[in-house]
Amino acid sequence: MKSEILESMKAVLIQYGSPEDMLSYSSVDHLMGHIRVWHLKTNSQTMLDLLQRYSGHNRPLTVLEVHDILSHIRRWYREESSK
């Protein structure tokens, strides 16, 4: 994964450190927008799976769902930065 994507992931994890703080529509939409950009740049199947799971009427609405998304980002970041 490109270093620019890793830096973007790191910034998102810092910005959205607390799932409780980002349940507003604009915050969740912005977070999903980052994942869409990362998917377009990496063609990652796991990112596509996450986008499909939380698209349309399935938009994340709970702290647990947002926490799940952030967990995926943390895992992607950890895996890619250790390479």
Give a written overview of the molecule.
This protein has 83 residues and is mainly alpha-helical. 71% of the residues lie in helices and 0% in strands. The protein is globular and about 35 Å long. The termini are close together.
Structural class: mainly alpha
Order of helices and strands: HHHH
Count of beta strands: 0
Radius of gyration: 12 Å
Roughly how many Å apart are the termini? 9 Å
- Kindly estimate the percentage of residues that lie in beta strands according to DSSP: under 5%
* General form: globular
The number of distinct helices, counting runs of at least 4 residues, comes to 4
What is the helix content? over 70%
| Largest sheet entry | none
Low-pLDDT regions:
none
Whole-number mean pLDDT:
85
